[in-house]
């Protein structure tokens, strides 16, 4: 399994490295990267999830057990991170970045690894994972920003609006609805959506590499370490326990563990800027976890896999 995992990681690492080099060498204008990330987030990745769910065979996928496993482990880790607030040596806005680093995940890396390890079934499992975790994480993060963010105010209406405007969540809901209603995509639309979805992965990973920023890692060593401990130790362990609690085994359990050991999302930086968090610290956490994931995942996934049966 380790060899398969490393082979699945290799193209991801190479694409992220290429993105970092292209940004460093200024091969394209700096304004290209935010627009490329926007294109991937609002168009390409939703197309991938919608197509994957609408055309997937979910008969053998324990959707309910997988969703319960992912939601439960995410909520438990979020609660523990909040309880650890007093031990985080940082101000309140910085704590929001620690929280995001502990619970959010990078979609592009997750889908790429799911496809590399699990084949075509990986897209469907990735879409189920996103449909479960995306709304959970967004609600939790908005609540934490409302409590600890600088100048942020909580509003139930704002939370609902944010969920309804989330393109990944809406794509998952639409795809699952189409599958449940046994709707068949038109002959010309199906390959169109498939092609769009395939384009999301390389472009998204290039954007991940371009967004890496190590400038604040040393300055924020303690909060970066706390966020990474929650992400790469607490979250995987809670996921394994939740798998046993809800009877999730096999490929679906491995997919759940995969998504819960991913580095935090590069979009966390944008959220930190918009909702009163600590954006420079968030950039350091994103960069650190992206590198640490290359070490942690080859150890965690094979090491914890026997406990999923």
Automatic annotation (TrEMBL):
Membrane topology, from the record: Multi-pass membrane protein
Family from the record: Belongs to the auxin efflux carrier (TC 2.A.69) family.
Compartmental location: Cell membrane
Protein name: Transporter
Gene3D superfamilies: 1.20.1530.20
PANTHER family: AUXIN EFFLUX CARRIER FAMILY PROTEIN (PTHR36838:SF4)
Organism listed in the record: Pokkaliibacter plantistimulans
TM spans (from-to): 39-56, 63-84, 123-146, 167-189, 201-221, 233-259, 279-301
Keyword terms, alphabetized: Cell membrane, Membrane, Transmembrane, Transmembrane helix, Transport
């Amino acid at each position: 399994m380790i060899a398969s995992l490393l082979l699945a990681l290799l193209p991801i690492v190479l694409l992220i490295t290429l993105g970092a080099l292209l940004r460093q060498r200024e091969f394209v204008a700096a304004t290209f990267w935010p627009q490329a990330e926007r294109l991937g987030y609002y168009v390409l990745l939703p197309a991938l999830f919608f197509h994957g769910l609408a055309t997937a065979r979910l008969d053998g996928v324990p959707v309910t057990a997988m969703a319960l496993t992912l939601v439960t482990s995410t909520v438990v880790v979020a609660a523990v991170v909040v309880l650890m607030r007093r031990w985080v040596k940082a101000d309140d806005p910085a704590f929001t970045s620690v929280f995001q680093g502990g619970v959010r995940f990078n979609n592009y890396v997750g889908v790429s690894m799911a496809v590399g390890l699990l084949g075509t079934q990986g897209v469907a499992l990735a879409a189920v994972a996103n449909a479960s975790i995306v709304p959970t994480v967004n609600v939790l993060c908005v609540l934490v920003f409302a409590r600890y963010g600088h100048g942020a105010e909580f509003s139930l209406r704002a939370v609902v609006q944010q969920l309804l405007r989330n393109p990944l969540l809406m794509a998952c809901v639409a795809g699952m609805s189409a599958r449940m209603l046994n709707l068949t995509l038109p002959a010309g639309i199906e390959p169109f959506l498939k092609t769009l979805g395939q384009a999301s992965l390389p472009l998204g990973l290039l954007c991940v590499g371009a967004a890496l920023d190590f400038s604040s890692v040393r300055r924020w060593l303690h909060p970066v370490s706390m966020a990474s401990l929650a992400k790469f130790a607490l979250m995987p362990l809670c996921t394994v326990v939740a798998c046993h609690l809800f009877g999730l085994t096999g490929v679906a359990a491995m997919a759940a563990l995969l998504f819960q050991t991913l580095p935090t999302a590069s979009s966390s930086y944008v959220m930190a800027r918009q909702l009163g968090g600590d954006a420079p610290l968030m950039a350091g956490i994103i960069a650190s976890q992206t590198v640490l994931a290359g070490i942690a995942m080859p150890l965690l996934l094979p090491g914890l896999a026997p406990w999923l049966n």
